[in-house]
């Protein structure tokens, strides 16, 4: 018999890009969690770009969890609670050499997404899902 492997968790949602005029722009995005990369979450932005390709960011799942209740992150990715007239939201700030962006994410979407990730890979059990040999082989092959 083969072991049952956890499945990838993916949620399609709409984030709001906060603009200087406070009007904001909706941005389609995918939240993704792959049990083979159990410490990370991935956000894929489906914004129209010069290349037409989605833009992806990856960061620690724990950063997202902490950011639900208090400011978290230093540097390129920061997350914190953000209450507004539009409801209970989470701020997601991203920085890169190309620029900065601030998004509003519905808190309920993140909570549901994170619950599903913890069903796939429970908190504290991430190391059981790592294939270190494959990861090292991939790293060495990139040289």
From TrEMBL:
Alphabetized InterPro entries for the sequence: SsgB (IPR006776), SsgB_sf (IPR038658)
Q: Where in the cell is it found?
A: Cell septum
The highest taxon in the source lineage is: Bacteria
The keyword Transmembrane is assigned to this record: no
Task: Return the similarity comment.
Answer: Belongs to the SsgA family.
Could you give a single Gene Ontology term from the biological process aspect?
A: division septum assembly
Which cellular component, as a GO term, is one annotated location? cell septum
Question: In this record, what's one Pfam family?
Answer: SsgA
Main location per UniProt? other
User: Keywords on this record?
Assistant: Cell cycle, Cell division, Septation, Sporulation
Q: What is this protein called?
A: Sporulation-specific cell division protein SsgB
